[in-house]
Amino acid sequence: MSTPSIQNNPLIGIWKLISATAIHADGTVTPDVYGTHPVGHLHYTSDGHMMVMFSKSERSPLSQEVQSPLSRELQSLPVEELAQAFTTFNAYAGTYTLSGNTVTHQIEIASIPNRVGTALVRTFTLSENRITLVTPPVLSNGVETVFELVWERI
After folding, report:
1. pLDDT digits (tens, 9 = 90+) for 93-143
2. Collapsing DSSP states into helix, strand and coil, what is residue 113?
3. How far is CA 122 from the centre of its chain?
4. Largest alpha-carbon pair distance within the chain?
5. Contact of 72 with 43, CB cutoff 8 Å
C-alpha cells in the first residue's frame, strides 16, 4: 500500500452521499438502506487523512432541545430516543492508504467505539464525478451482505 499523493489520487476532495444499497448473499437487494435521500459527507485529503459521516434522511427529532452532546439534557432523554439517534447515524475519521482500486481506512475515532484501531477496506470504482465504495461481505441480521455507497464529488 502507498500513501496517497495529490498527483495520482482520484479520491482527494469532498463527496456527498447519493445512495446506500445492501446486496445480500442470496441475491436480494435492499435499496435505500439509509433512506431514499441519505445525507453524508466523505472527505479525503492529499496528506492521507479521511473523514466520513452519514445518516438516514428520515430521522426523528429528539423530544427536547439539546444544546450539546455533553449536556445533561441529552443524558436525561429516554434510552429509546438515544438508541434511535445512534442507529441512524455513522461517522469515523482517521488516515487512509490506496492500493489499486482498494482504499483502506485506519480508524482513529468513530461513532461505533469498537471500530477505533481497526482498518476498514473498501473497493472503489470511479465514473465521472461519482465514486462507488463497496464493503467486503459482513454479517448483517444473520445474512452475509455487501454494502454499496455511491458518492458524488462536491
Report:
1. 999 999 999 999 999 999 999 999 999 999 999 999 999 999 999 988 888
2. helix
3. 11
4. 50
5. no
Give φ, ψ of 15 to 5 degrees. Answer: -125, 145
Number of Cβ atoms within 10 Å of the Cβ of 118: 13
Beta-ladder partners of 22: 30, 147
Given a contact cutoff of 8 angstroms between Cβ atoms, the answer to whether 108 and 95 are in contact is yes
Cα 125 to Cα 33: distance, rounded to the nearest angstrom: 20
Locate the DSSP E strands across the chain. 13-24, 29-30, 39-44, 49-55, 89-99, 102-110, 119-127, 130-134, 138-140, 143-153
Distance CA 136, CA 148 (A): 10
pTM comes to 0.89
Tens-digit pLDDT profile for residues 53-72: 999 988 989 998 888 888 88
Round to whole Å and give the CA distance between 46 and 12: 6
Taking alpha carbons only, the member of 111, 113, 65 closest to residue 86 is 111
DSSP-based three-state secondary structure for 25: coil
The three grid cell numbers given for residue 53, joined into one nine-digit string: 459521516
